[in-house]
Structures are given as structure tokens and as C-alpha cells.
Amino acid sequence: MVNCPECGTKIELAKDTIQNEIIDCPTCGLELEVVSLDPPQVELAPEEEEDWGE
Amino acid sequence: MKTNLGILSSRIRVEEKLLIKEARNRSDIKLSVVDPRKIIWDLSDFDDLDVLIDREISQSRAYHVMEMLDSGPVKLINDFDTVKICGDKVLTSLLLEREGVPTPDFRVAFDKQSALVAVENIGYPAVLKPVDGSWGRMVVKINDRESAEAILEHKSYLDSRYHSVYYIQKFVETGNKDIRAFLIGDDVVGAAYRKSDHWVTNAARGGKSRPYQVKKDLIDILAKTNQAVGGGVLAVDLLESSHGLVVNEINPCMEFKESMKVIDGDIPARVIDYAVQQVKIQKEVERLNV
Fold first, then answer.
1. Cβ neighbour number for residue B5 with a 10 Å cutoff
2. Which CATH number describes the domain made up of A2-44?
């Protein structure tokens, strides 16, 4: 269980969550990055930069 | 013997997660996820890898990692030359044209006055794109001379070095849709329409996938495209012009989440298959050269 750093909502990470995975906060919708699995920790995901793409 | 497969990624989105799960499910693969944000460059960091799949969202990071590993023992997907070509719209257009692959008419200028002449020369509407942009970011349609003057004036004040290059394409009317086709090696794994309420159809801008029937004209143009840019794992974006298909852009770190909804091909499985196959080919070539 982690807390959204923006709105404080408690979020249960899925069992198959991967390090650095991007998840959405179900309440405020912000993108969060899973920075640690053990212990589970999330941070606000980095915002889009000019060189991002495919 | 296991294939040591690396995935270069700092941001695990749906596509990266599918690739990671696919690799983890295979007993013949040892997987490493390499986060480029953690790299303090030392080539030995990659000693254990046979192959590295580029899934890095930052094109600058991906470019330099692939550049530094180029010509080394690690098989890169995609090759650095392909990453370099597809990441630069001028280079892509030049090579497509040189190889006779139909592509929208284009001009390149390096000054706002000559860019205005180029826009007038190519005709309205024209499309102005950053040379190295993605996701439809800062792509504008110029409908008339007044718009051209205003847009080029604004662009001239942007400070990135790439904004000093004016890449201008002839606008191709398609009814707000394009085609995204997936090429893995020589195989067309699938293709989908991307439709939108806006003329910019990128999935990142809300374009939705719809089924597209792959036919000979698509297979033929993709074969020539593959030859022009070096091949690998590519998403090729095409437009249906009044003269047939034209290749608009090529993406070397393709997003496929949206398209997967309407195509049958298992893209993550095919990408991993391709990576393993490329390692086998590379090892066989090395063995024969000993």
C-alpha cells in the first residue's frame, strides 16, 4: 500500500507491478512512478519533456 | 544457453510492461531492465548483455546510449543508424526520397524568410514540424500567408538548436486519419488506422485505432522503407494520398498500446522473438568469422 503524494489516497499496488512502472492515482488522476517495490514507494512521475517520444 | 536481453527504459508504460512480462515468461532469456537515469557511463555496464532493446522515452538518452554501444558486442534493437535516421525528419525524408519511397513533398530551410519562401513554394496548406519531435508536439498546419508569417516569427524565437531548422511538408488531405504499420525485421506484423477529430492523429493526441486490411501496396512500400532506413522494429506511419500510400514518419521506439486493440499480431512476443533471433544470427556470423 502506498499513498498518493498529491492527494493522499491509499493505493494498493497490483501484484505484477514493475519497478519504474507508471500508474495513475485513482482519485486525482496524477501519474505516479513506482520508485521502489520493497518497501513500496511512489513519487510524482516526471513531466513530459521536449525530447520525449517514440 | 540463455540470451541476456536488456530493455533500456526509464518509464515503464503498458508497452514496456508487456515486453518485460513476455521476456520474463521465457526460460531461455535472462532479462535486465536498464534505467538510463542510473547510468554513469562505463561500457562494462553492458558486458553481460547479448542484446539491448531501446524502449527509452527520452530520445536524447536513447540516442546517446545507442551511439556509445554502436559497433560493440551488444546487438542493438534498433541499430544506431536506424535510430539516427528515424529520429531526424530531414534525414528520414532524404533517404526515403533517395530510395524511391513515396513520401510527402518537403522543404528544409534555415531562416524564417527562406522558410516563408519554402512554404509558399510548397503551397498551402503546409505542415511545419520540429526536426526531432514526436507525439505531434509543435506540429502546425499553415493555411495561408498570414498564418505562415505569424508561426515562423514565433518559431524564430524558440531557443532549441533544432528550432533553427524549418522542416516543411506538403499537407496531405486524408480525412483526419493515417495508418500505423508495424514492421519487425522483414515481416509486417499488422497495421491499423488512427482516426481523430483533428488532423493530427497521434495516439498521444487522442487518435483512436480502427481495423485496417493489410494489402500488397502496404507490404511493398514497407519493404522499400525497410531498405531505406535499415530495418529492425519499426512503426511506420503512412498517409492515403490521392496517388496511393506515402510514408509520413518512422518510429524506432514504437508505441503499440492503442493499435493492439485492433490488430491480431502479438507485438511483444514478436519483438522478443526478433531480439533472440538477431542474437543467434550475430553469434553464427562471429563463429563463421573465427
1. 25
2. 2.20.28.160
**Cβ <8 Å between B60 and A22:** no
pTM above 0.80, yes or no: yes
* B3-86+270-289 fold: Rossmann fold (3.40.50)
CA atoms of B102 and B222, how far apart (whole Å): 10
State in Å, rounded, how far the first CA of chain B is from the last one: 20
Give me the interface pTM, i.e. the ipTM: 0.89
| pLDDT, tens only, B253-266 | 999 999 999 999 89
Instruction: Write down the CATH number for the domain with range B177-266.
Output: 3.30.470.20
Distance CA B48, CA B138 (A): 40
Q: Which residues 50-69 of B have a C-beta within 8 angstroms of A? A: 57-60
Q: Which residue has the cell 511545419?
A: B128
Q: Which residues of chain B does A20 touch, with a Cβ-Cβ cutoff of 8 Å? A: 9-12, 33, 35
Contact criterion met (CB < 8 Å) for B134 and A33? no
Chain B residue at shortest CA distance from A50: B133
Q: Which residues are CB-neighbours of B218 under 8 A, at least 6 positions away?
A: B179, B181, B188, B191, B238, B245
DSSP classification of residue A8 = -
CATH number corresponding to B105-170: 3.30.1490.20
Query: Which element (helix H / strand E) includes A36?
Result: strand A31-37
Least CA distance to B136: which residue of chain A? A53
